Every structure is written in structure tokens, then in C-alpha cells.
Amino acid sequence: MVTHDVVLIPGDGIGPAISTAATRVLAAAGAPVSFAEHHAGLLALEANKDVLPTATLDAIRATRVALKGPCTTPVGTGFKSVNVQLRQALDLYAAVRPVRSLAGVPTRFEGVDLVVFRENTEGLYSGVENEITEGVVTSLKVCTERASTRIAHAAFTYARERGRKKVTVFHKANIMKLTDGQFIRCAKAVRDASYTDIAYEELIIDAACMRLVQDPTRFDVLLMENLYGDVVSDLCAGLVGGLGVVPGANIGTETAVFEAVHGSAPDIAGKGIANPMALLMSSVMMLNHLAETRHDPACATAATAIKTAYDRALADGAKTADLGGTLRTDAWADAVIARLP
Questions:
Q1: Is the predicted pLDDT of residue 161 greater than 80, yes or no?
Q2: Which residues are annotated as catalytic?
Q3: Mean pLDDT score, 256-276
Q4: Domain definitions of the chain by residue range
Q5: Which of 70, 263, 267, 338 has a CA between 20 and 30 Å from the CA of residue 322?
Q6: Per-residue confidence (pLDDT) for residue 226, from 0 to 100
């Protein structure tokens, strides 16, 4: 059996605990991966005086795949987000977040099954900010035709390959006529040129968010720029139980980083109660990515086994405290392992 080298970034706060739980499940399922641990975030800062060491980036470039726990980002001061730096350094232009209803996780909605595609390298998250004079600061929103076109291709390709029926673009082009205007023009041009088999619609984002919380089942694949994607993907997570049950992937042409999209939760770090499910779900996305890009059916087999096992665990009531259960982090991983075929 071929073994695929993967960089593991445990992250901060609860990151090491959920990383350990997730990798235990992967090992038990016989996933053909070998992890090499590297650091980013506060742990890296303490050791290297750099929140994103060159050695970590070089390791990801070498393996082309990484699994990442949550990293702390200071609010309003301090260092630039590790996540933003990572995406920009490796040109991880597509943030992909599937959101689906889960048995055993009751919410106000049933039958939610959508995927958010977020352009990951531009927009207001480009980090181009300036202080014009005391008390006056500006932030520049960047939108290029190249980035808008390639994220549209990614969303439509995903929809076609997975049997999805519709792509909806969220925008604010009625106000931001140049930036968001270009984004929707590129999306429509891509669709009209190559993907006429996929239904297409455009919605102004404020109205779109209202429709999401009225009836999320009317949506399929959502496509949007960076800031909107950040906000809307968290909103969508709330429809199915929160960030603890939603995976995330950051895909580039050469590399891919799969991560838990929730925070590092320092307030519960070390207490053994963190939910590792989001990172495990991201691990399944990683295995499917390896199956597709490395043409390795063993990865797909392991991914299916793990997904089936955690679905069964949830349906059987095996849940951590954030989902209303009583299981600790390690015990939840044990519950999933016990349901592996």
C-alpha cells in the first residue's frame, strides 16, 4: 500500500487535543497517510519568533497536503492571521465548506445540503490597510478578473462532478459596482461558456442571507468573494449545529490544506471536552482529495469508512458537550473507532 506524506499542524488551544483524536481515528481506519508535525500560530511564535515558519510552508509545498488545527488570531492588534498568511503564501484560492444536516444533531432545519465556495486570496482580506491621518483609516478591497474567474471555474466544476444542480452567486454589485460587478460578470461568463448544464442565479447578499435562514434547502452551491464567504459559511454552519460539525478545505493549484474552521477555544483547552468532529470531517475531505489527485482508492475506502462511522456515532447519541452530549474528546474518538467496519 502506498502511504501519502501529510503535514500535520496541530494549532493552538484545543488544536493538539482534537488533532490527536482525529489522527487516532485515521490510523484505526487504516488510512494510508503518514503525518509529519509542523507548527504555526502561537506555538510557532514561541519557538521561532514567527507565526508561520518557512519550514512549515516548505513542508507543505513538499507534501502538497496538510491537515491543520485551529490557530489563534489576535483581535484588533498583534500579528496577521495565520490562516490568511497561509492561504496567500500557498495561493490556496478556493475555500470549500460543505454544510449538511446530520442525524443526531437536531436543528430548526432538516435536509440542509449545500456547499460554500469562497474566493480565498483577495477582497478586503488582502490586508491592504492604511492610516490616512489620525483617526482615519482605510481598507482596500481587491478584485481581479483572474481570481474571480478561477474560483467560478472551481465552483462550477465541483457542481458538475458531484451532480449538483445550481450555483448561486452572492454579491453586493448594486453598491460595489466595480469589484462585485466584476465578480458576477466573471462568474456568469464562466457559466455561459462552459457550464450551461448548471442552473445559475445571482442574489444580493443581504437578501440572500434572509432567504438562507428562511429556507436553506433552496440552495445548492454558493459562490462568493472572500469576506462574504467567511461570514456566510459560518451562518450556514449555524443551520446544522455549528462550527463543530462542519469541515473546511483550502484548495490551490499545487497544494491543499484541510482544517477545522472553528476557533482555538483557549477557555476549554486542556479540559478534554473539545469536539474533534470538524477536524475529522476535514480529514475525510483530505482523504477524498488524495483519492482523486493521487488516484488511490484506498484513501476513498478509508474516507467512506470514517464518514459512515461518525454518522452512526452521532445517530446513536455519541456526542460531546457542545452538541448536548456527555462524551469527552477521547471517548468520542473511541465511539467512532468502535463503529468502523
A1: yes
A2: 125, 172, 206, 230
A3: 95
A4: 1-98+243-341, 108-240
A5: 338
A6: 96
